Every structure is written in structure tokens, then in C-alpha cells.
């Protein structure tokens, strides 16, 4: 996974650092998944900007998936994104 930053789309306000993985990349759309490093508030279905390691910015919509944990561990939230 790669490190990046997550910003709110409207205000370009920093939310948290993230680890991300790109799953698909075409000339029009980019898709992938990210895991937040911190505790910034992320709205399911919200519009965000993901800043990649190479400083490229992707406007995207996030959808939350919850990985069910082993007993005694907190759930891990993985967000899927599609953007351009």
C-alpha cells in the first residue's frame, strides 16, 4: 500500500493520512481502496480528494466497507473510491 492524504472536497480541508491501493486506472476513471491512519471523520458516500504519493489529486466518492475482525480486535474500515 502507498501513503497519501485525504481532504474534504468542498473546503479542501485536511482530514487524515491514509494508506491506499489503486485497483483500476484508465484515462477517465481511477478506482481503489484506502484505510485511514488517523481518526478524522469520514462520511460514507461523501466527496473527497485523495492526494497520492506523487502529489496527483483524485476527486472521488468514498463508500465504507467493514472488515469483520477476529475476536477482541476493533473493526477495520476500508473505503472504496472511484474518481477522476
Write the layout of secondary structure elements.
Blueprint lengths: L1 E7 L5 E12 L4 E7 L10 E5 L5 E11 L8 E8 L1
Tell me what you see in this structure:
With 84 residues, the protein is mostly beta strands. It has one domain. The chain is 0% helix and 60% strand. The protein contains no helices and six strands.
Q: How many domains is the backbone divided into?
A: 1
- C-alpha end-to-end distance: 20 Å
Q: Low-confidence segments, ≥5 residues, pLDDT <50?
A: none
Number of strands: 6
Give the strand content. Answer: over 45%
Q: Tell me the strand order in the biggest sheet.
A: 1-2-3-6-5-4
Largest sheet: 6 strands, antiparallel, barrel
Radius of gyration: 13 Å
Order of helices and strands: EEEEEE
| Count of helical regions | 0
Indicate the mean pLDDT: 82
Report helical residue fraction: under 10%
Q: What's the overall geometry? A: globular
Name the structural class: mainly beta
Name its key features.
84 residues; mainly beta; single chain; globular
Would you kindly provide a brief summary of this structure?
This protein is mostly beta strands and 84 residues long.
